[in-house]
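Record passed on here:
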Amino acid sequence: MKVVARLVPSLLMVAVALSCSFDKTAPDPALSLKKGGHDAGNPDCRVPRHGKSNRNNPIEFVCAIQIPGNVFTSSQKGWVEQSNATYFLSDASNNGVDVFDVRTHTYVGRVGGMAGNVGTGGGTAASNGAGPNAFVSAPRRGHGHDDDDDDDGHGDNRVLFVSDGNSTLHVVDMDSRSIIASISVAKSDCDGGTATTKFCGRSNEIDYDPVHHIVAVSNPNPLSYTRCTVAGANCTNAAGVTAAGAALEGYLTFVSARPPYKVLGHLTFGAGTVEGHVWVPQLNRFLLPMQGAPGGPFIEIINAKTMTKEPHRVYDCVALTGAASTGNNNLRVAGRYLWAQMCGRPMRLDPQTLTVLNVVTQVGTGDEDWFNPGDGTFLVTGADAVTGVASLGIMNAYTGAWLQNVPNIGGASPSAYARTNEIFTRVPFNAATDATNRCVVKGRGCVVVFAHTDTGHGDDDDDE
C-alpha cells in the first residue's frame, strides 16, 4: 500500500454528493443528515460501490449518522459484523445496542434491556457498572472455526456476544435484534449473592476463541462486597446499602460459545487494569495487555483450554519510544502480524515471539483499534503527533508504514466494513468538542463514516 501525504484539513471538509439509496417516502430525521443541509433527514453517505478498486486513495470524511433517543453521551465500542453488513454501537445513554445498516447508512433499531449509564459500585443490581460495552460474534451452532461462516448478507448463523454492566454477558440474535440469553460472569469474592452485595462491576473487553469455542470477557474493576469490621470503614450506609470494600484484581471469565453458554471458569490477574485481549491463532492463545501495571507494560499469555496464565512478556517503553509509560490498550491480529497500542504509540509485533517490529510515531493511541483486511489497514484513534488534533490514524497493517491521519474530533473506536472499506467511529456528545466534531447536528453526538476517495489509480498494493 502506498504512503500518501498528510491531507490538508480544509480539503477533508469538502462536501460529498449523495449516492446512497433510501426510502424517500418515509424519511426519518433521526437517521442521518446531509452535510449540505438540504434534504435533511435522508442518508447522505456517498461511498464507492467497489471499495477495493480505490483502496490506494486517501481516506476522508463522508457523512455523519444521527442516533435517535436520548443524547448520545456514554459509549464504549463499535463493531462491524461482516457477515450481515451491520454496525453495532454500545449506547449506555439509551440502555442498549444501536443497530445500523451499513449498506444504507441508516439506524434500523436498538437492542434494549441493558444496564445503561449507571455508576460503578453502590451494591445494587441497577448500579453495578455501566453498559453495554464491547462485542464479538461467534457461530450460532457453536462448532467449527470461523471459516464455517457464510457471507450471504445474513447473520442467521452467528450470534453477537455483548458485555454489559452488572457483570453480565448477553447473547444477541442479530436478525431479531433481541437478547436470547444472559449470563452472569460475577465471581464469589465480589458478589455476595444479594441485591446489596454485588460489586463485580461491569464486564468489558471480549473476544472469541474459535478452536475451543470459548468467549473470554473481562471485569476490570471488581470490588470486595465485605461489610465493615472497623467503624467508619466499608460500612452499610444510612440507606442500607453496603459500601464497597477494597478494589480487587481484574479477571477474565471463560464462557462456552455453545448453548446454554455455561461459565467454564475465571482467571484473576495482578495489579493493573486488564485491557483488550485478542485470540492469536499463531499461538493458539489469548493475549491480554495490562494497563498501568507496576513494572509494565506487559502482555499476558493465556491458555483458554486450561484457563491458566503462562509467563508474560515485559516491554521497555523508554527503549521503544524514548518516554516512560505503563500504557497498554487493545491488541489486534492483522494477517501474520500483531498490532498493539502500547507506550502511547501503535506498534507492529511478531505474534509468535511478541517482538516489536516497528513503532509508529505519527499518531497516538486511543481505545479500540481495528484491522481491515479489505484494504490491509490498521486503524486507531489518537492525537496527530504534529498538530495534536484528535485523528483517525491509518497504517499499512502488513508493512507497519504510517499512511495518513484524518481529523476526527471527539471520535473513537474505529471499525470497518471490508467489502467497501468504510470506517465507522463513534462520537459521543461532549460540550468541549461539540462545535468542532464531524456531527452535523450539534448537541447530540453521532456516528461518523470515512471512506477512500473516488479519484486515484488502480489497485497495486503490496500486501500478503
